[in-house]
Amino acid sequence: MSANPSTKRxxxxxxxxSGDMHAGNVVKALREQQPDLEIAAVGGQHLQAQGVxxxxxxxxxxxxxxxxxxxxxxxxFLGQRILKFLEEFRxxxxxxxxxxxxxxxxxxxxxxxxxxxxxxxxxxxWATRKGRIKKIKAFVDxxxxxxxxxxxLYQEHGIPVTYVGHPLVGQLPPPANREAxxxxxxxxxxxxxxxxxPGSRKMEIDYLLxxxxxSVPIMQREAPHAEFVVAQAGSLDPTFFQQRLDAALExxxxxxxxxxxxxxxxxxxxxxxxxxxxxxxxxxxxEAALYRTPMILIYKLHPLVYQIAIRIMYLPCMGLPNILxxxxxxxxxxxxxxxxxxxxxxxxxxxxxxxxxxxxIRQKAGFEKIRKDMAVGDAPQNVARALLALxxx
Length: 393
Prior knowledge:
CATH superfamily of the largest domain: Glycogen Phosphorylase B
Structural class: alpha/beta
Low-confidence stretches: none
CATH class of the largest domain: Alpha Beta
Largest sheet: 7 strands, parallel
Strand content: 15-25%
Distance between the termini: 22 Å
CATH topology of the largest domain: Rossmann fold
Number of helices: 18
Radius of gyration: 22 Å
C-alpha cells in the first residue's frame, strides 16, 4: 500500500476471461495517463501482465457461474473477501467490468460503504431483465457504455453515462491476406468461401453443428465450387469437437457427404476472408459486420430454456447487427430454434452469394453504418480518460 494519502487507488472487478482482457487494456491506458495510480483487482493474466495486484484469480468465477447453485456460495464468500480487502485498500473508486449478476450485487455492497462505483460494459438491460436498470441507477455512479443507443437509454433513466465505444473496434485484427489464407489451408483460389461458425461453447456445438453441416450439400447446389470452412474455437476441447464433427458428417448420406475444412483459433482471419458466413449468435456477428462480411445468424437452445428466453426478451431481434441498424427491418436473417434447420440455413444464405441482390446490398450498407456509428476512438483510452476525470474531480 502507498503511504501517501493523496495517492488515487482503483479496484477493478472482473469475472471472466474477456473482462480480464478488457481490464488489462484499460489499465494500460490508465498507466499512460496517470502512472502513479495504485490498482488492485480480481482478474487474470491480462491484469497480471500490467503489474496489477490480484487478490483473486477470476478463472473459477466463469466456470461456476454467479447464478448457479455451486456458484452462489463461492461468489458470496469471494464478495466478503473483496470487502475485507477494500477496508484496508481504501479505494478512491471501484470499476466493474461486465459479469452482471455478481457485479450488481457487489455494487450494492460498495454503495452501502460509500465507495464510488463505475461500470464498464454494463448488463444488456435493453435485451432482457429491464429491471436491472433500477439497480444500476441505485448503486452505480457512472456507466461507460459500449453501444451508441445505450447512451440515450441511460440518460432517459437519469443515470450518468459516457459512450466510450466498443472495445472490439480497436482490438479487431486487420483483414487476413486471402491468398495466403487459402494457401495455408489448401483452399481453392477465386471461389466463394463460406465460413461456418457453430459457436465456442459445448452447448452450441451440440445444437448447431449438425444442422450447419447438413445445410452444406444444399448450399453447394447454389455454389458448387465454394469452399466450406468450419471455425473451431480455441475454447473447445479438440477431441470433443472432432467427435461432434464426425457425427454431423455421418448424418449426411454418403453420396452427398460434403468436404469441409476445419481451421483452429483463426476466427478473425476466416471472418475477414469469407464471402458469406453462418454464425452462432453472439459477439462474432459484430466482428463480421466490422469486417463487412455478409452473414446469417442462427441459434438453438434446449426447448424449455428457449420458451423461457422468448418470454424475457424485449427486442424483436437479438443479432447485434440488427439491433445497431434496423430492428423493424432486420438486415441479417435470424433463424431461431426450429427455423435453424438445414433447408432454412441454405435458403437464407442463397441471396448472399450474389452481390447484386437487395439482401447483400442492405447488409453492406448496414455494416458501413455500424462502422461509422462505432468509430469513436479507442475504447480503453476513452474509459481511462473519463474514469480519471471522475476520480480526480
